[in-house]
Design brief:
Two copies of one chain form a homodimer. Chain A is mainly alpha-helical. The first copy, chain A, has a three-stranded antiparallel beta sheet with strand order 1-3-2. The radius of gyration of chain A is 21 Å and the shape is globular. The two termini of chain A are 40 Å apart. Chain A binds a DNA duplex through helix 2 and helix 4.
DNA sequence: TGCTGATGCTTCAAGTTTGAAGCATCCGGG
DNA sequence: CCCGGATGCTTCAAACTTGAAGCATCAGCA
């Protein structure tokens, strides 16, 4: 932090100091906020349940028909190999079960067991309340703005990078 | 995700639809943005260097005197036990070294070796450029706003929870 | 001086995470 | 029908991560 460095009185001085590298700054703060939130979010979970396990169960809870590993992997943005282990543990605990996919013998449908459904039903509301409480001190306007900006950021990150790079040609 | 929904230009009305649970929504989007950024950030690193190792080296690069594990742990928001392993690996690669602390025999100062300094000197600018490129498509105003909002969010998260209680009581 | 709690670090078990490799299956031509 | 690429999943090695336990040291205090 540094004492105000007044830039030239350009058109519209933002409320806060201009950052020479806004990208890096946003990146660092995003990391930090993420870590702080993560730490608190973990706290609210009952012993023996990890955040990744909770995430998988929360997704499964809204899909009674079950989800394939690939679908889970896309929703949670983790690798497929990762899900194998997480689902293994959920299965070992009797909270989820793998079932054959009706029309694709490669695929596996992961579903919650009744016990899993009961468990997530108890945990989820408490968890949601915990998150809301955590952010209760943040002004509502800030939350709305953050929501909007982060939403746009995600869209940009999902569709933006590939132009010159990796996947797809220029959709431009 | 949805394309822009233009609301009437009433000043008070937020640009986007009100969310019944803005906290959870912010939380989910923050996670998503974080994961997307993380994925890309990893890409830019040379083979054999992981993001945590990079983070530690980047911190050490600006502290020629070295940092203790606890200092590193506070800056990077990871556990102390975690750092043991990361520094072990850096040391094994000849990029960092542990030295006795002058006045506290419990503590250890971690410093970059000359090789480490050379390496981070080459990687860091490229990495910074990569992040900026990644976010180049995001409007500058969005970045400034995000920077500011995330900064305030971090402050709230850091100072908010502890005072009254570990995990929020009903602050209402 | 000696006690006591705090602090710095390491160790450990369990879980998460990735990326690559491998296998089975699917699907769209030829 | 058969083949070659794409897809779904698992396995594996290596690394990260936490939280708890343990040890050495420090700092305040009686």
């Amino acid at each position: 932090m540094r004492t105000a460095v007044r830039k030239s009185p350009s058109r519209r001085a933002p409320a806060a100091a201009e950052s020479p590298r806004p990208g890096v700054s946003v990146w660092l703060r995003l990391m930090k906020a993420h870590n702080l939130l993560l730490r608190e979010a973990r706290r609210g979970l009952p012993a023996g349940m990890t955040l990744p396990q909770f995430d998988v169960m929360a997704q499964l809870a809204r899909e009674p028909l079950g989800l394939t590993s690939v679908q889970l992997s896309r929703r949670l943005l983790v690798s497929a190999g990762n899900l194998t282990g997480i689902v293994d543990r959920l299965e070992r605990e009797g909270l989820a079960r793998r079932a054959a996919h009706a029309s694709d013998r490669r695929a596996t449908l992961v579903r919650l067991t009744p016990a899993g459904r009961r468990r997530i039903g108890r945990i989820l509301p408490r968890h949601v309340r915990g998150i809301e409480d955590l952010l209760a001190e943040v002004p509502r306007a800030d939350l709305q703005a953050l929501r909007e900006l982060l939403g746009r950021l995600c869209v940009t990150l999902e569709t933006g990078p590939p132009p010159g790079r990796r996947i797809l040609k220029e959709v431009r």
